[in-house]
Every structure is written in structure tokens, then in C-alpha cells.
Design brief:
Helix 1 links the parallel strand 1 and strand 2 (about 30-35). This protein has two domains: about 5-125, Rossmann fold; about 135-230, Winged helix-like DNA-binding domain superfamily/Winged helix DNA-binding domain (Arc Repressor Mutant, subunit A). It is built from eight helices and eleven strands. It is an alpha/beta fold. The termini are far apart. The strands form three sheets. A five-stranded parallel sheet has the order 2-1-3-4-5, sandwiched between helices. Strands 6-7-8-9 form a four-stranded antiparallel sheet, covered by helices on one side. Helices cover about 40% and strands about 20% of the residues.
Length: about 230
């Protein structure tokens, strides 16, 4: 069985060593780098299963590293940063991170979040047999969602989504007119317990709507049911 490899990118050696110490106890293989360019190179040259990134790093910051990783890879990304404002957290999640922790941090909580992200990633990468009569492709009025290729096109034009945005869209579009609460969406897409994550779902929905062009047209693919949740208006 392949040993899981985790990338730690942080220019603070003490923090990187602390994170590595706790993750090594879990049996993970660690690769440590101290700048953004080395982080991108590590992902390109090694089989990385999860990345823990600082935001303020020399070379490339964590945001740019995430953008470059997301162009080719879908591995889970956790930001571990001293930037603590809600805006910083929202920005990190919108860019493509799967989770965000602030420094100082509880190492055991970080380990728990790493384990949760890896469980979800491994589940998503398992081959799924579609139910009888179902199709891996959803096509509604010019919007095509291909589950197997994890691709979306709108009126023939590709729509670039982060893994979480794709999962939210696919979940909603699979059950048109069904209303999903933010809690249900979080549990289904993030694969873990719901903890003060209403804003996380809301931000991802907002970005998803923007990428689907809802700001320029009257066609609303995702409808907000006030006080209840969200539904796919297909």
C-alpha cells in the first residue's frame, strides 16, 4: 500500500518541525520546503497527497502556490497561517484551499483536520458505479456537468471550478428543486461535522454563481431559499 506523503511549506523551521513531528507519529511521509517555488516544484516532482501551506512565504506566497497547484492537481490543501481575519480565511477558501487554520494552533487539531481531508480525498478517488439508469453527465439548458471528468461547460465554454465548487454544483444539480441547507452541503462536500461553516458554504456558492455568469444574466442556476438553504433551479 502506498505511503501517504504530505507537503509542509513554511519558512518558520520551528513550526514546520512541530507539524512534521505530530504527522510522523501518524505514519505519514513528510516533505518540508521553506518557500513557495519549492512547494510548487515538490508537487510537480513528487506524489503529494496533501499540502499544508503558510501564506506569507518567500518566492511565491501561499495564495499563488495554491493557484498554480489547482491548475493541474486536486490534492487537499490546508492553509496554516498567522493571518487571522475572516477576510483572510474567506480569501484562502475561495482561492482553492480546503481548510484554514490560524497560528498559534493546536497540533492535535491539525492532525485531525489532515486525517479528515485525507479520508474525503481517498473516498472521492474511489471508482464509483453509477446507479442503474443514471448518467455520469448532467445536462440542463446549456450547462453540462461531467462527473467522471470533473468538468463543467456552459453554452460550450469551459467553466473552471475548484474541487469544492464542483462538488457543490454537482450535488445541487443531481437533485433539482431539492433544498439543501448549508449544514447538509458542508457535511456532504467537506465530509466532516458542521462547525460554524455557514460562511464557508455561502462564499463558495457566491463564487460559483459568479463563475456561472449569474451576475450578467437573469438566469439563476442556484436559488437561495431564505432561511432554509439552496436549490438548483434547473
Amino acid at each position: 500500500m502506498k505511503r501517504i506523503t504530505i507537503l509542509i511549506a513554511d519558512d518558520d523551521a520551528e513550526i514546520a518541525d512541530l507539524v512534521a513531528l505530530h504527522l510522523e507519529k501518524e505514519g505519514y511521509h513528510l516533505i518540508k520546503v521553506t518557500d513557495g517555488r519549492a512547494a510548487v516544484q515538490a508537487v510537480q516532482t513528487h506524489s503529494i497527497d496533501l499540502a499544508i501551506l503558510d501564506i506569507m512565504m518567500p518566492g511565491l506566497n501561499g495564495h499563488e502556490v495554491t493557484r498554480q497547484i489547482r491548475e493541474q492537481y486536486q490534492l487537499p490543501i490546508i492553509f496554516l497561517s498567522a493571518k487571522t481575519s475572516d477576510l483572510d480565511k474567506i480569501t484562502g477558501l475561495v482561492i482553492g484551499a480546503d481548510d484554514y487554520m490560524t497560528k498559534p494552533f493546536n497540533p492535535m487539531e491539525l492532525v485531525a483536520r489532515v486525517n479528515a481531508q485525507l479520508r474525503r480525498s481517498l473516498q472521492l478517488n474511489q471508482p464509483v458505479q453509477p446507479a442503474a439508469g443514471s448518467s455520469p453527465v448532467i445536462e440542463i439548458a446549456g450547462l453540462i456537468i461531467d462527473h467522471d471528468c470533473r468538468s463543467v461547460t456552459l453554452y460550450g465554454h469551459p467553466v473552471e471550478l475548484t474541487p469544492k465548487e464542483f462538488d457543490i454544483l454537482h450535488l445541487l444539480a443531481s437533485y433539482p428543486k431539492k433544498v439543501f441547507s448549508a449544514e447538509h452541503i458542508f457535511q456532504q462536500v467537506w465530509g466532516e461535522a458542521y462547525y460554524e461553516s455557514g460562511n464557508t458554504v455561502m462564499v463558495h456558492i457566491r463564487t460559483l454563481r459568479k463563475k456561472l455568469g449569474e451576475e450578467q444574466t437573469k438566469n439563476k442556476w442556484i436559488k437561495t431559499v431564505w432561511g432554509v438553504g439552496y436549490t438548483f433551479n434547473g
